[in-house]
Amino acid sequence: MTRIVQVAIIGAGTAGLNAMGQVRRVTDDFVLINGGELGTTCARVGCMPSKAAIQVAEDIHRRHIYQREGISGGDGLSVNVDDAFEHVRDIRDILVDGVLSHSTDEMGEEFIDGYATFVEPGVLEVNGERIEAGSIVLAAGTKPVVPEKWREFGDAILTTDEIFELEEWPTSMAVVGLGVIGLELGQAIARMGVQVEGFDILDTVGGIDDEAIRKSAIELVGKDFPLHLGAAAEITKEGDKLKVSNGEHEVVVEKVLVAMGRRSLLHGMNLDKAGIPLRDNGLPDFNPNTARAGDSRVFVAGDGNEYRQVLHEAATEGRIAGYNAAREETAAFVRTVSFTICFTDPNICHVGARVRELEDHEFVVGEAKFGPSGRALIMGRNRGLLRLYARKEDGRLLGAAMAAPGGEHIAHLLAWSIEQNLTVRDLAAMPYYHPVLEEVLQGAVRDAIGKLPHLKEGKDYPLDLRPLEELLP
């Protein structure tokens, strides 16, 4: 049996649902194909349940400063981790239900529950049914990576697919992989009272490549749980527990959270039969501005392309892919400034160009610490560092990195500034309220300007004041 449609969308996650929204504007002649759980990775096992856990951890951690604020009884507070994660699941279920009620719950025969594979260019097979599509959107998402040799340890090995389902929590846990996911969950679980130790083969955490920010983040997050870096972790059985070691350190724990990244589900789709160009990693070679793979009618979106694996980028790619898949003419769209946020305390954020991407450019670094910030001191969070990268020629902001309280908000301000091609002098002339965390940004901007003496040529106006004459015709 063969079904012929104008558009086939593979994956009902963030990218796939956004693609469907665009396709529906043009045609009802489409199918949405999804194998596995519905509700998006973000809502089920990613962004949202992790942030619910982080909020619980922050709330209980706050008790440590109560005494100096004159609040008594903080020492008597405790958290029941089992109950805390029941709350996390309740929040998760509300969010997942919200996604489903506005998407697949409303669909009929245009939704197919199953895993699609390519049979030939433009032709898919799902549950034994052939589907011929004029355009295909690949938004199949990812799955957690677990080394095969560790699978023998059974349910003692956890990924984000399982950790939020635990109803009886262990007293000890190791986290292998200290990217965003491992770092966020490791700190949150440690703050709830579980004994946690972290391991990573890299000598950094959270993807940081700025050395000063790396040192700051490791020092600050390391106050909550030990971080063992720079060597591969090994796991062996130790009675009814697991021993995790990296050569120099070993720990025996009840559970291990493996947070070593996620692998694209596109690898299981027989892409060699799709008639599209592939990269060395076996994934589609696509144009990020059109989502199109070569000259084909295949469009690629979401985490499965392993390009920018964050939700807002998946949503953007889904809209681009859906828009073009439903039309004969292919439109190219501007991609916004790349930035990432790790919701640890302090937040670890990257905005725009990273240090390693600026090695061949002349730039200056504007730096400011959060220690002297009055607002941060009042909040009991006066720790962290912000660094800005500005082009030496004209002071144009290129990127930033930070380990910062409120970094999630400062990162947005900087991403918007880079998007508008602003210079550090433009940022210096912006209004800064007092007392706010953004005053640290003001300090970093001024530090950068101080390293760009040529900006002072001409009239000796204060660099944080914009002369009215510049605005007059």
Ordered list of secondary-structure elements with their pairings:
Elements: E1 2-10, H1 14-24, E2 30-34, H2 41-45, H3 47-61, H4 81-101, E3 111-113, E4 116-120, E5 123-126, E6 129-138, E7 142-144, E8 157-158, H5 160-163, E9 172-176, H6 180-191, E10 195-200, H7 211-221, E11 227-229, E12 234-238, E13 241-245, E14 250-253, E15 255-258, E16 262-264, E17 298-300, H8 311-325, E18 339-342, E19 347-352, E20 363-369, H9 374-379, E21 385-391, E22 397-404, H10 407-419, H11 424-428, H12 438-450
Parallel strand pairs: 1-2, 1-6, 2-3, 6-17, 8-15, 9-10, 9-15, 10-11
Antiparallel strand pairs: 4-5, 5-6, 7-16, 12-13, 13-14, 18-19, 19-22, 20-21, 21-22
Explain this structure to me?
- The protein is an alpha/beta fold and 473 residues long.
- The protein has three domains: 2-39 and 103-144 and 263-325, FAD/NAD(P)-binding domain (3-Layer(bba) Sandwich), CATH 3.50.50.60; 148-260, FAD/NAD(P)-binding domain; 339-470, FAD/NAD-linked reductase, C-terminal dimerisation domain (Enolase-like, domain 1, 2-Layer Sandwich), CATH 3.30.390.
- It is 28% helix and 23% strand.
- The protein is built from twelve helices and 22 strands.
- The strands form five sheets. Strands 1, 2, 3, 4, 5, 6 and 17 form a seven-stranded mixed sheet that branches.
- Helix 3 runs antiparallel to helix 4.
- 43% of the residues are buried.
